[in-house]
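Duplicate of #3305? Posting structure anyway:
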């Protein structure tokens, strides 16, 4: 609904404007209008006249103003005048309002302005620290205006999708108890109970499970979550996610709920509805792509050669698993690049990286590599044929344990082949059947791959104590263009299974009662089978608008060091505030 539709909806307007700058067109010629905004640019035209480009979030309109000498960039003004066609030869086809202008203008200066510290054109290259220090100015840029409005449209689409599927929106506490999400939490000291602390929730995980015990049945929330972890392009201290939980449902039901919300949001943001989202097991993703968040825009898969090199005389391939990755049309790859890739492979866990150029020789296709002379004819032929290589291609090989070989080549695949995250097409995929445990802690206890409330795969429950490394979980991730959007799982709702998982993790009954007693106590009174999911809205919107960093879809973000340059946060508290909280600072800043 534009401003004219709002004005015609039956409510008499007393607004200072009756139309937005970017809404005007040739159909408004002859109409007297009032518009408001910022002076984007002023161009002198003769002794008294000036062209004023007036900007609001909808766009720019040209105003012809008599006596505009006092108007400067970023002045806030109201212009009342008559819409008219631009003279022949002066139309501007680069903007939607380029056919018209506003003439016979009366101008009211609503606020004067100093020159801004940087230009507001989207093409201007401005240091990020300057932008963030002056975020209130940065937000005027068309790019950020678009990003925030796309984000708002995505939120509306998500809410509509969840409401249509019978979910009820429930707010959960911000001041909460610690949750086992695996990241460091922000602590908030209690003024009324000195020496005790709340934490800011990493997610509403336990709260939404308790809502299921409480019979809410289907819950959702566009939830604010906080994690005190190192920041990067897809991570901030504060982030926003669609959080949902439903009772008496299966994993496939959750896929249906989330897919509708995500695909509705994509259609609103991009104008195109993506195809239904396919599924892939964790093992399939790792084996074929070397990643549990594969970028499916890249068609190249990892190829297994373990059988080919099982009895090879090539020492470099003496390992349980040998995997290869074809790089098409890589004849120009230099030896220095190959050396750099080899060092990178070693840094991330491989013993080395073998490479083979595919060349066309007298006897047909062959290989150019320091290892070629050690290969048998069958090994050489298999490398070319299984990878479907042609002249000019490059084949990279890693020999190691299965997971190391897969992850290293997956990392190389992502580093060398992946496109920028926001480039289409949008390739979603559900990843299922993650391991329940992933690695061990310093005491040798398994660590949860997701969180300790994830239901084990029904077929693997018997392995919980005897072989926990082989236990699959009923957990799942949603991946888009190589970014993990979010995770979820079928939850444990039986106390006996929950206790078994805790024992596997080395959590004693006493510790479990201390940390999660309120949840375990709730389970005693009848918990329904339930499952849920959460995905990051910041990441989703960033992909839709083609941003590599989620800071560009957040109104007031932190820097990579966690600082808010505009407000100066984090900052010190007054001595009185520190005393009232019952705190004592060991190294107070001067």
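Output from current build:
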């Amino acid at each position: 609904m534009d401003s004219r539709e709002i004005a015609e909806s039956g409510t008499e307007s007393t607004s200072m404007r009756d139309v937005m700058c970017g809404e005007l067109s040739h159909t408004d010629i002859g109409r007297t209008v009032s518009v408001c905004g910022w002076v984007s640019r002023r161009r002198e035209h003769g002794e008294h006249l000036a062209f004023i480009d007036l900007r609001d979030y909808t766009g720019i309109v040209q105003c012809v103003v008599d006596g505009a000498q006092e108007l400067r960039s970023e002045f806030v003004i109201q212009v009342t005048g008559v819409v008219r066609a631009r003279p022949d030869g002066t139309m501007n086809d680069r903007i939607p309002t380029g056919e018209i202008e506003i003439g016979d203008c009366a101008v009211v200066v609503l606020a004067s302005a100093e020159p801004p510290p940087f230009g507001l054109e989207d093409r201007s290259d401005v240091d990020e620290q300057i932008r963030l220090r002056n975020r209130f100015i940065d937000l005027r840029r068309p790019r950020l205006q678009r990003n925030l409005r796309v984000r708002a449209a995505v939120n509306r689409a998500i809410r509509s999708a969840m409401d249509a599927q019978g979910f009820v929106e429930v707010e959960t506490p911000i001041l909460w108890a610690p949750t086992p999400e695996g990241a460091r939490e922000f602590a908030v000291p209690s003024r009324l109970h000195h020496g005790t602390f709340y934490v800011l929730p990493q997610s509403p995980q336990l709260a939404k499970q308790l809502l299921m015990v409480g019979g809410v049945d289907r819950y959702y929330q566009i939830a604010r979550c906080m994690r005190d972890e190192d920041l990067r392009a897809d991570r901030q201290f504060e982030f926003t996610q669609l959080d949902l939980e439903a009772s008496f449902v299966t994993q496939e039901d959750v896929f249906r709920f989330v897919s509708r919300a995500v695909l509705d949001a994509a259609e609103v943001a991009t104008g195109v509805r993506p195809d239904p989202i396919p599924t892939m097991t964790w093992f399939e993703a790792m084996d074929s792509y070397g990643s549990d968040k594969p970028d499916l825009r890249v068609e190249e898969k990892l190829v297994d050669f373990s059988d080919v090199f099982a009895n090879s005389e090539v020492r470099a391939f003496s390992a349980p698993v040998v995997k290869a990755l074809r790089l098409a049309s890589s004849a120009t790859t230099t030896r220095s690049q190959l050396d750099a890739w080899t060092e990178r492979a070693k840094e991330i866990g491989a013993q080395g990286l073998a490479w083979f150029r595919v060349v066309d020789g007298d006897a047909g296709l062959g290989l150019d590599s320091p290892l070629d002379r050690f290969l048998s004819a069958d090994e050489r032929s298999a490398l070319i044929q299984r990878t479907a290589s042609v002249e000019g291609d490059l084949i990279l090989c890693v020999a190691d344990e299965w997971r190391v070989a897969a992850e290293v080549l997956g990392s190389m695949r992502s580093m060398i082949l992946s496109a920028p995250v926001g480039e289409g097409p949008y390739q979603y995929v559900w990843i299922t059947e993650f391991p329940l445990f992933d690695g061990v802690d310093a005491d040798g206890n398994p660590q949860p791959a997701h969180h300790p409330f994830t239901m084990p795969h029904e077929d693997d429950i018997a392995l919980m104590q005897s072989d926990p490394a082989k236990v699959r979980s009923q957990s799942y991730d949603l991946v888009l263009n190589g970014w993990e959007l979010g995770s979820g799982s079928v939850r444990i709702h039986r106390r006996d299974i929950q206790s078994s998982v805790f024992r596997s993790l080395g959590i004693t009954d006493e510790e479990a009662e201390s940390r999660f007693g309120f949840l375990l106590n709730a389970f005693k009174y009848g918990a329904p089978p339930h499952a849920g999911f959460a995905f990051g809205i910041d990441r989703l919107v960033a992909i839709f608008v083609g941003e590599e960093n989620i800071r560009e879809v957040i109104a007031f973000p932190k820097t990579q060091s966690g600082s808010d340059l505009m407000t100066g946060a984090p900052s010190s508290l007054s001595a009185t505030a520190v005393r009232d909280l019952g705190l004592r600072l060991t190294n107070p800043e001067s």
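Confirmed duplicate; merging threads. Residues 6-11 have pLDDT under 50 and may be disordered. DSSP finds 14 helices and 22 strands in the chain.
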